[in-house]
Amino acid sequence: MADTSLTGLPDGWEVRRSNTKNLPYYFHPATKDSRWEPPVGTDPNKLKAYMAEHHSSLGGAEVLQPPGGKIRCAHLLVKHKESRRPASWRESRITREKSEARTVIEGYEKEVKENRRSLSELATTESDCSSARKGGDLGFFGRGDMQKEFEDAAFKLAKGEVSDIVETASGLHLIQRLD
């Protein structure tokens, strides 16, 4: 069990890895409470640093075969207070304005497009989507599976290509086509 001063989790909570999904989750042994989202009282900055160091999926992605007509993408999501669900694993209540979210994601876009950091690396610690624990990997999806704006942008990408900023009801995205 990692020291809570390192993980940023409240006392008694620890990070474990699911045997079935091979993803990290949060567990409190005394109460037997388990959850995918961090518990209330978590220090998001400490948790981000701990997760990036100990639970990043970078380099460990499994080989997957695309089902017919489907593509595989990763994304980085930055939510704002007008997002469909203005909460995430990083923040229980997102209060930033859409213009602030745009400024944040523009910074990430610059880092990715200048090859300073990969989208997967940034998504692991910065994305407001629970896919962050998988480097932003959304797996395979087909037409009609995602929000229209997201899907339209994703299907236009060549393998390895990163989109411009895409706005959906969920927030602002950078999308990378993986397969």
Features:
Ubiquitin Ligase Nedd4, Chain: W, three-stranded antiparallel β-sheet, Chitinase A, domain 3, 2 domains, 27% helix, single chain, alpha+beta, 179 residues
How would you describe this structure to a colleague?
- About 25% of the residues lie in helices and about 20% in strands.
- With about 180 residues, the protein is α+β, with helices and mostly antiparallel strands.
- It folds into 2 domains: about 5-55, Ubiquitin Ligase Nedd4, Chain: W, CATH 2.20.70.10; about 70-175, Chitinase A, domain 3 (Roll), CATH 3.10.50.
- The strands form 2 sheets. The chain has a 4-stranded antiparallel sheet, with helices on both faces. Strands 1-2-3 form a 3-stranded antiparallel sheet, with no helix packed on it.
- A hairpin with a 2-residue loop joins strand 6 (about 165-170) and strand 7.
- Helix 2 (about 45-55) crosses helix 4.
Give a quick rundown of the structure.
Residues 58-65 have low confidence and may be disordered. The chain is an alpha+beta fold.
Spell the H/E element sequence. HEEEHEHHEHEE
> Which CATH architecture of the largest domain would you pick?
Roll
Q: Pick out the low-confidence regions.
A: 58-65
Fraction of residues in β-strands = 15-25%
Q: Oligomeric status of the shown chains?
A: single chain
Judging from the principal axes of the Cα atoms, what is the shape?
A: globular
The largest β sheet comes out as: 4 strands, antiparallel
| Count of structural domains | 2
- E-strand count: 7
- What do the pLDDT scores average to? 86
Distance between the termini: 36 Å
Structural class based on helices, strands and sheet pairing: alpha+beta
What is the fold-level CATH name, i.e. the topology of the largest domain?
Answer: Chitinase A, domain 3
| Rg, nearest Å | 16 Å
Q: What is the CATH class designation of the largest domain?
A: Alpha Beta
- Classify the helix fraction into a percent range: 25-40%
Strand order, main sheet: write it out.
5-4-7-6
| Helix count, DSSP H or I runs of 4 or more residues | 5
